[in-house]
């Protein structure tokens, strides 16, 4: 019985130690970023399910969010609803598609004031916030179209 309690306690310690209260806010040099545009990446489903346990334990340091507190962004519908509500809570606006630049992950593009990024990062369902990048088009070699030759050296069929 004591050994079981110790194993459960150790398992709880692992859950607590891997959870973060604040999202990572990634940076990009100023000339390489689009001002006031970010991609917000939600945590993976496995981590999101653990949050409910962590909310219940004050020792975890993870507080239940104030914006749609019972919504986990696991389904497309819940992700979209949460994205809209989170953006509104920080005076932002969701834009672009729901398609994630990260394979099989959920998130959203948001335009928001720079000083609201740290507030958005406090939501425990958010893994990271990354500034949108400026895209540079480079001169590419353009292939000349192949002429449709009828007659001149080839016979039309």
CATH architecture of the domain at 22-43 and 63-133: 2-Layer Sandwich
What is the averaged pLDDT score? Answer: 80
Basic shape? elongated
Overall number of strands: 5
Summarize this structure as a short list of keywords or feature phrases:
alpha+beta, five-stranded mixed β-sheet, 157 residues, disordered C terminus, disordered N terminus, 4 helices, 18% strand, Alpha-Beta Plaits, elongated
Summarize the structure.
The protein is of the alpha+beta class and 157 residues long. The protein contains 4 helices and 5 strands.
Would you give an account of this structure?
The N terminus and C terminus are likely disordered. Helix content is 30%, strand content 18%. The longest helix has 17 residues. The chain starts with a helix and ends in a 24-residue tail after the last strand. Strands 1-5-2-4-3 form a 5-stranded mixed β-sheet. The protein is α+β, with helices and mostly antiparallel strands. It is elongated and about 65 Å long. The protein has a domain of 93 residues: 2-Layer Sandwich (Alpha-Beta Plaits).
Helix/strand layout:
Layout (H helix, E strand, L loop, with lengths): L1 H17 L5 E2 L7 E10 L2 H12 L19 H14 L3 E3 L11 E5 L5 H4 L5 E8 L24
Parallel strand pairs: 1-5
Antiparallel strand pairs: 2-4, 2-5, 3-4
